[in-house]
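Subject: Purple acid phosphatase

B.,
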Amino acid sequence: MPSSFTSISLTHASPHYQTLARSHQKSGSKKFNEQPLSDIAIHEAVLALHENASVKASPNVLGLKGEDTKWVSIEVDHPEPSADDWVAVFSPAKFNGSTCTYEDYTRIQSPYICTSPIKFMFANYSNPSYTTTGKSTLKLQIINQRADFSFALFSGGLSKPKLKAVSNTITFANPKAPLYPRLAHGKSWDEMTVTWSSGYSIVEAVPIIEFGGAARGVGWRDPGFIHTSFLKDLWPNMVYTYRMGHMLQNGAYVWSKRYSFKASPYPGQDSLQRVIIFGDMGKGERDGANAYSNKHPGALNTTDTLIKDLDNFDFVLHIGDMSYANGYISQWDQFLAQMEPITSKVPYMVASGNHERDWPNSGSFYDTDDSGGECGVPAETLFYYPAENRAKFWYSTDYGMFHFCVADTEHDWRIGTEQYAFLEKCLASANRHKQPWLIFAAHRVLGYSSNDWYGQEGSFEEPMGREHLQQLWQKYKVDIAFFGHVHNYERVCPIYQNQCVNDEKSHYSGIVNGTIHVVAGGGGSHLSDYTELDTVWSIHKDHDFGFVKLTAFNQSSLLMEYKKSSDGKVYDSFTITREYKDVLACVHDGCEATTLAT
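Prediction pasted inline below.
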């Protein structure tokens, strides 16, 4: 096996994923720079147990009151301490070679570990004197991940780990409990879907949701089982409570805690409607685990700022690069737990990014290994979105006065493709009399960006992006196009064919003669630099973490605000004011052919 082998949690993966991950291992690829766990050479682990070293975890049973997240104390005692000692969290608790579920894994030496830990922390994290005393107490936050847990002490750093001691096993009172609800729009405005994770197979228990009656549905993949229920014929703007559950074979019920959401407004409803948009978040560890290589330093700030403001927005659109699990399937659970206060309360719509989908020879438009072999399977299963084909991550959705067309940049979007035809149909279907605010969203920048690497290419966009799509944006008078992928914020003037069509900076009114482009990729992952070249179409840039908020006050007034994740304050904004007749007005390449008869 190549020395550059990168450990991946294959025992937590679907057979489809395992095949792709093994292919990656054999290729010797090293491109997992977004995932801290990839720095652990777990295949190199050597069994070197020390008879006087110990790791003790407490309490033994978690979630006795139904909690899905608990803090655990880890007491470490090592007679031969060093600064590079570290503690790994494994789940399932048994992580030696006997847990390997595939035959062609080449085991290096005892203890033949074939699964990555789900997180880790250096032993001296909370005690600088550890190298002298050999004693330390760590506090780790553990979430319910459908299995038991153990904690292992390693010396030798991350590249040459030596296993010194293994702790007792701890577990949640009900490791199979229904968890982490994700709300999303169904295929009609009055339908809401609830997707959740559990350890119950359809054979063990029937998934149900308590919602004035039961709606059922299930789909699954390793790890655990994924269930989706469809709540239909909702009354607009009504607040509903719900809880997920499972009816066991003996007739008993297992329930989650109760949640609530507000049903969507009907299309065209003239009321206050507020939307959050961002991309490229990642996940953070509240206990400081994996902190030495924090790849997503803004993730928790963005999450917490949104949670604090949860009563002041109605809908979220995450435009790709969600968890950055990159093949470490346990990290999806961590991300779902992080986002649960938001995803359980408001519709959380998602788009596909390179870190969800891209993998060589898998059908993705880009032949990179950015997804770590996931090939879109976790994202397509863990989140519901109203696409006609789950493998084709493009769809439309409505929220009151907004009509969204969400593209999939990891599949071909060019003229003549299936996706291009869908996008034109989606844009054309907007009833601008009822839904005046037409929004295009995608992960990669198909429009304009002053990002450094785009500048080096000379395109200031994803190659072939706006060349194929700008006529659609112009023809159907798209108000704003949002993109992620570039980890910063930027607002571009209303533009068509590389020319600003409006000199205004903060208030736009009248006819729609160009689309405003916004990069909102500062959700939490490491920041991207701007080019040093002068991009005359760029109005505002911010090299920081943040998100965008759209507020539709009525059918003629829209506000866009850019807020920093650090304080939630507004650092850029503009308004659009216009009437329906302004949308109908002819502009260059945006005027329908007419005859005297019409």
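Residues 1-32, 212-222, 594-598 have pLDDT under 50 and may be disordered.

T.
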